[in-house]
Amino acid sequence: MIAIVLVLGIITAVPSIVLAVRNDMWPMIAVDIVALAWLGALWRMRRLSYRARVVNFIAIVFFASIGLMINVGYVAQVFLMAPSVFAVVLLGMRPALVAVAGSGLVILVLGLTGLARPELAGFPPDGFVATILATLNFLFIGTMITVCCGTLLQKVTKSLADLQQFAASLEEGKNALHAANAELRLTAAAVAQLNDRVIIARASTDPARPQPIIFANDAFLRGTGFTREEVLGRSMTMFSGPETDPVEAARIASHMARGEGLSSELQIHAKSGAAHWVELDISPFRDETGAHTHWVIVGRDISERKKAANAIHQLAYYDVLTGLPNRRRLMEQLNIRLAQAGSAHGALLFIDLDHFKYVNDARGHATGDDLLRNTAQVISSLVRGDDMAARLGGDEFVVLLTGIAGDDAAVAAAATARAQAIGMALAREVAIDSQHYSTSASIGIALLRPGQSADDLLREADTAMYRAKANGRNGVALFESTMRAEMEERLTLERDLANGFRRGELSMHLQLQFDADARPAGAEMLMRWRRADGRMVPPDVFIPLAETTGLIVQLGEWALRQACLAWQQLAALGHAMPLSVNVSPTQFRQADFVATVQRQLAETGMPPDQLILEVTEGIVVGDRDGTIARMQELAGMGVRFSIDDFGTGYSNLAYLKRMPLYELKIDKSFIHETPGDADGTAIVRSILAMAAQLRLRVVAEGVESQEQARYLTANGAPHMQGFLFARPKPLADVLAELARLGEAVPDEAGR
């Protein structure tokens, strides 16, 4: 500003100085020059503070005004208004009032001293009164002008401040609006890109009217196959379909009619018509006044979770192979039915396939599984109403019959008729892999009674099934109270077998085998159990018990040890002969079986070629290659193998050819009919011929008559074993019998 004033001062001072020179007004010229010089110096002194520069500027104005009044006259007092105006603008009200007072003092002093006399009409020019009046009038006008200027400046300043604040507020609002818009765009983009499905619907004040969809994100459109145009404006009911649960849909509608949020799992339908499960969170949206304006629905596709849950449920409650309910599902239903047994009659059928193990062992698990699936289909086809068929495991099935009217006798008769129908249906031939199979079933029946537990009912039906098997299989047996005692006896027998083994109640007997010349050629080790009370338990009773309880592995290892020790005693007395020991499939599949045999032979000194392991044909079922490899390993050591009960199972000659066999044992059921029965005789002759072709030794079991012995001697001359020659005896009795025979046993090692 000083620069502007300096320029203006120079522009106005030059003409003034020129005029002053013409009129010889040198004091005036001096005042102008001093003022301009002072102003120029002030313009150059830029380091002075703002207040110092303003004070100097006002002082220059005072100086110029006084000079003008002295040189021009009292009329120049108007210039003394400038300091106060400049002061109020540049410094504020208080400095401005001081400047007004200073200007009034200058007028008063100049008037009283005569340097600038006031000229007032009616007053002498040199009068005291005129000076006082001029001073007072100046002070009044100057103060008014100064106060008005100051007030106006304050208002202008406040207005400018308000304007700046308003502008700042507008800018802040603009920035906030931009930020809000950016956040809205970001939120919209984020919602649009969510994997969760989001739709927003406008809330209707009339629940009966549709609530139109106004927003659908990309995930929703991808999941349903609709376009945004096809969805917007439509009601959410457009996604319902034939598989949508109407009860759950009604529950959702009820909550929405009341303006209540909820969560739900519902099947909805895509544009293609495909149904899929979604988990919905439905929330009402309210504005700042609390009015319900919209619905926000967030959904997640849970089809895979539902599939997994259904799969878990299927695995937990249904048999994988047949699709029938499993034991767990059956027991739950039994508990429910038994709780109703006071008013509803029923029965439980326990079905066990006869000789299923033969099919499984000979033909393999794949064929066995096909047969089990066929069995399940047959049983299911005969189940009606609220009846239930289930598979317990293996070849065991159960049918729960309910709603049978009448007393116990009527229920038993109806259940027996149903069981017989199932048995007849199962006996029909079925084709599996171009082979025809037929299987019978033993069926036990137990009636539902009040207060009975599911375990007791199942146990009773199981007991009745075993009675059906004991009666010759392929039959039906109804549980009777006497069977409970038999069941308890079976449980007791299982416990006593384990205890008896530990107490040494079991022993090994030997049954000699003879060649065609009636000379001892070997012996079979047979296990016997004499209980502590002296009663004998038949092997066909306790051996199956050992199989089911797992004790067979310990019994088998013990029997192998006893055979090695028996051979030691026989050899010590000059009667060394091959000894045969039965090996169960369970025992043979033990990982350490080969090592166990090797250790027993090494510890007792029994030559490996004097040990014959008798196995069944089904030993190769399962891990065929591993089983045959294990047999090859034992055969490499010198151990020999015999197929026991040959001909009773489903013989697979391909596997027999791969086995390192030493002998075949013809089952006694065939020998019993020889030579009187043409079929049995033909089977024996075929086995002998096949063995000759395969260069295998043959042992005929169950030889009890001279007629049988003569026939066998004339047709292949196999070795013979049976009551005709010798009964199973303890080792001491066998040694005595060999001593009586008075002859050494031929060495079979080279055969």
Reconstruct the topology from this structure:
Elements: H1 2-22, H2 26-44, H3 50-71, H4 81-90, H5 93-113, H6 128-193, E1 197-202, E2 213-216, H7 218-224, H8 228-231, H9 246-257, E3 262-269, E4 275-286, E5 292-301, H10 303-317, H11 327-339, E6 346-353, H12 356-363, H13 365-381, E7 388-393, E8 396-402, H14 408-426, E9 430-432, E10 435-437, E11 441-447, H15 454-470, E12 476-478, H16 481-503, E13 506-514, E14 520-530, E15 536-537, H17 539-549, H18 552-572, E16 579-582, H19 585-588, H20 593-604, E17 611-615, H21 624-637, E18 640-646, H22 653-658, E19 663-666, H23 668-672, H24 678-694, E20 697-701, H25 706-714, E21 719-721, H26 731-741
Parallel strand pairs: 11-12, 14-16, 16-17, 17-18, 18-19, 19-20, 20-21
Antiparallel strand pairs: 1-2, 1-5, 3-4, 4-5, 6-8, 6-11, 7-8, 9-10, 13-14, 14-15
